[in-house]
Amino acid sequence: MSEQLKGTLYAFSGIFLMSFDAIFIRFSGLGGFEASFLFGVFSFVSMAAAAHFFGKGIFSSLKSGGFIIILSGAVMGGSGTTFVLAVQETTIANVVLIMTSSAVFSSVYSRILLGERTDLWTWAAVAASVIGVYIIVRGSMAHHGLKGDMLALAASMFSSMNYVIWRKYPQISRTMAIALGGFFVAIFSSFGTDFGGFGMVPVLIMAAMGLFSAPVGRAFISTAARHITAMEISLFTLSRTALVPFLAWLFFTEVPPVQTFVGGAVIFSVVALHSLSRIRRASAK
Q1: Number of domains the chain contains
Q2: pTM of the entire structure?
Q3: 128 or 184, which is more confident
Q4: How confident is the model over 139-165, as pLDDT tens digits?
Q5: Helix/strand/coil (H, E, C) string of 25-61?
Q6: How far apart, in Å, are the Cα atoms of 149 and each of 14, 131, 189?
Q7: In b/e form, how buried is each residue of 141-174, taking b as 16+ CB within 10 angstroms?
Q8: Residue 171, Cα to own-chain centre: how many angstroms?
Q9: How far apart are CA 258 and CA 79, in angstroms?
Q10: Domain range holding 258?
C-alpha cells in the first residue's frame, strides 16, 4: 500500500468521525463554553488513558515531545474551543464549509515553516476557497451569523497550523498531543463556563463525543500527517462539506442561506478536483 493511499484512508476515516462533532454539540443543548469544557475534559481523559496504556506513557511522551508537543496541544485547544463556539453561533453548514479554507492557511504555513513548494493548481484551489468563504460570510451578514463565521475561520487557522506542526515533527506522540489539546480546550473554556448548568443527559452526550468520536477521529488525522502533506489533509475536509450539512438537515432540519450553497459549491468543486488530481499523480509514480 502506497504512502499516499495510507494517508488518504486515515484522513478520510478521521474526517468521517469528526463530522459528528457538531451534531453532538447541538444535541447536548449546552451553551458554547459549557459544551466546549466538557468536550475538552472527556477528550483529555480518553487520550491520556490511551497514551498511558497503549503508548510510551504520559510523562515519557511529554518529555520526548518537549515544547513542541505543548505547542501542538495549545494550538489544538484553540481550534477545538473556537469550533464548538462557532457551532452555537451560526449554521453547521457554514462552520464546516468555512473550515474547508484551512487549505489556504496550510499552504502559507507549509511554505514558511516547511519549505514545501505549492504548484499552480494548488494556488487555484486556494483562490477558489477564498472566494467561497467570502460568499458564505456575505450571506451570514444578513442572517446574524457573522460572529460564528469568524470563529469558524479562527478554528480553521488553528487546525491548519497544527497539521503543519505534525508534519514537521512526526516523532511527537499524536495521542498525547490530542490529550493536551483536550486539556487546553477545557482550560480556555473554563473562563466562560457555568459549572452549575450541567445535566446528566448533556454530559452523557458530550462524553460520547469526547471519549470516542472526536479523539479517535483526530488520532486518524494525526496519523495521516505521517504519510501525506498538511495541504492534502486540509483538502480532505471537503468530504465534510457534503456529509455534515446533510446530517444537520437530517437531525435538526437546519437549512442554511442560499449563499452557503453557492459558496460551498465553489469550494467543494475546485478542491475535489484538486485532491483527485494529487492522488492520481501520486499513484502514477
Answers
A1: 1
A2: 0.77
A3: 184
A4: 666 566 678 888 988 998 898 898 888
A5: HHHHCCCHHHHHHHHHHHHHHHHHHHHHHHCCCHHHH
A6: 23, 14, 19
A7: eeeebbebbbbbbbbbbbbbbbbbbbbbbeebbb
A8: 21
A9: 27
A10: 3-284
